[in-house]
Amino acid sequence: MAEGESESTAPERTRKKSGTRKLLVTIIPLVLIAVVAAKLTILKPPPPTPAEASARAAVAQYELDTKCALANAMTPPPAPGAAATPTVKAPDATGPTLDLDATTLNLAGGHFLKVGVSLQLPAKAVADDVKVNENWASLVSQLVLDTFSGRSFSDLAKEGAREKLQHEIGYRTCERTGGKVTTVYFVDFVMQ
Q: Is residue 62 part of a domain?
């Protein structure tokens, strides 16, 4: 009888094991589906209110303005009143530079100005890729034209005028590229 009992318990054990396996195979996917559903519905954070979104946008704009001002030797704007004061440091000028073609402009009084500009790129940027994929050269060329057109030779010959305009163009470039180009350098500046 002992042999018969052992034979009858062996099928019961395999039935219990297969029942447990079936139960696990059924429960695990259901638990995973429940977790995913909970994450997508219940645990999903609510969308920001318009006030929160505008506050975040104001802080982001302040940080960009501060970054661009510090990179171009300008005074950063005052911190927004209600927003937390973010800490922004001047960006390092450790990335590559991208030299743009020189632009020749007519100045007031029949004089000419030749300006060559170089862009300070982010640290990991590749200048050749940026030249092909970004439209920063056109943007900076337009800023140079807008800044220098109509200026006189004597205005540009004043002490510090060139540096002031370089920082102004750098700041505006930084703003328009979202802080990707932090500043510009004049690599060629000839007035005649």
A: no
φ and ψ at 185, to 5 degrees?
Answer: -125, 140
Per-residue pLDDT of the chain (192 residues; tens, 9 = 90+): 455 555 556 566 666 667 778 888 888 888 999 888 887 777 777 788 898 888 888 888 898 888 888 888 888 888 776 445 555 555 566 788 888 889 898 888 888 899 999 988 887 878 777 777 888 888 888 999 988 887 888 888 899 989 999 999 999 999 998 888 888 999 999 988
As for how many domains the chain has, the answer is: 1
Helix 161-176 / helix 50-71 crossing angle, nearest 10 deg: 150
Q: What is the spatial distance between Cα 144 and Cα 15, in angstroms, rounded to a whole number?
A: 83
CATH number at residue 104: 3.30.479.30
Say what the pTM is.
Answer: 0.67
Q: Is residue 36 included in any domain, yes or no?
A: no
Flag whether 5 is in a domain: no
